[in-house]
């Protein structure tokens, strides 16, 4: 199942370095070809809550297999694309498969491991996601340079097939009862359309301007639909897309509120660090992707380590430590970024950021998912990931506005963007200190209790 997560996460970053080649091959412009990434991320982020609800309702194995089938089928179509429209459409439909797979995988992993290994479950899945993000630029760059960008999509087929085969043979979890299988269509439609309007509005604000009537209209539509979602969910009762038991759970709410602020910092780093490497240090796209390895590789490694640490230290200590690192990293970037800066000046901040994200993300996810009933773990994981994507998009819109206000020169804009990211991460730190987990005291081990 972790291999399937690697495929999903790899697709977020592997395509970035291939965009210039695609742009030339299809004879299009950058504003069009960027939707190869945006279409996948948008569909994935919008539908992941629905995917989580469907997994908890109809069965996690079933949703995983359906999602993997959709993902692989449209990966093949994407690799065979003859026009940019064909490719963008295939990428959007791949996002549907990913949105079905991710929460199903999370739910099955937590169901397979005992409750006292919940931290390990979160660490495995988030560590696999970090690994996919880390190797994506390298895999994408190598395949594009040595053969063709189309192999990026074709590579998904054997890896996903391996994950499906092992899951089919070895993973067996309880299926839901028949009387639970009702779908909240109004809730799905309202939340999905609201998120689409919000994410497109934020994405286009940097091109159209925040005062553009189209941006204001999309943001207003998003606000109306999200506001309408609340009474619709109350009316749907236990069969709501987001049931009241989940929405009113304070321990889950702590993670839900904190995660968007971390997402904003994560998205900001993923945008401005490669831009600084390419614009100021004259790195190639592949070089900038490789330059992100101190961050992404540390994120993956620490995520795996965070599982055992969660069991030993508890959620609060690990979440506070992670959030503090996430807040410190953009502050470091803002201090070292300058006209005379070298790549080496960025490395300490990237390592600190990787430690912070790798500590905080699995911890907040595990704390939130384990706070709800086991029948809702896939949904809880989907909601938390949606919060990260939405928070990242909103934060990216804010940092872009701050960057534009300070630009030119380029380095002044980057400094301002990172200062804002540091401030947003401090909010996540405050939430971690006040609400996530139990106490800052270390957990007592069995040996301590016996002594």
Please describe what this structure looks like:
This protein folds into three domains: about 180 residues, Up-down Bundle (Growth Hormone, Chain: A); about 55 residues; about 200 residues, Up-down Bundle (Growth Hormone, Chain: A). By secondary structure, the chain is an all-alpha fold. The protein contains 20 helices and no strands. Helix 6 packs antiparallel against helix 7 and helix 13 packs across helix 18. The radius of gyration is 21 Å and the shape is globular. The longest helix has 30 residues.
What is the topology?
Blueprint: H1 2-13, H2 19-26, H3 30-33, H4 35-58, H5 60-79, H6 84-112, H7 118-146, H8 150-154, H9 156-170, H10 185-208, H11 213-236, H12 244-247, H13 250-279, H14 285-291, H15 293-313, H16 315-336, H17 347-369, H18 377-406, H19 410-434, H20 446-450
Helix pairs in contact: 1-6, 1-7, 1-9, 4-5, 4-6, 4-10, 4-18, 5-6, 5-9, 6-7, 6-18, 7-14, 7-15, 7-17, 10-11, 10-18, 13-14, 13-17, 13-18, 13-19, 15-16, 15-17, 16-17, 16-19, 18-19
Summarize the structure.
This protein has 20 helices and no strands. With 451 residues, the protein is an all-alpha fold.
Q: For the record, what is the CATH homologous superfamily label of the largest domain?
A: MFS general substrate transporter like domains
Profile the largest sheet. Answer: none
Q: Span between N and C termini?
A: 40 Å
Return residue spans where pLDDT drops below 50 for at least 5 consecutive residues.
444-451
- The CATH C-level name of the largest domain is Mainly Alpha
CATH T-level topology of the largest domain: Growth Hormone, Chain: A
* CATH architecture name of the largest domain: Up-down Bundle
Strand content: under 5%
- The secondary-structure class comes to mainly alpha
Sequence of secondary-structure elements: HHHHHHHHHHHHHHHHHHHH
Number of domains: 3
**Mean pLDDT, as a whole number?**
85
Number of strands: 0
Radius of gyration computed on alpha carbons = 21 Å
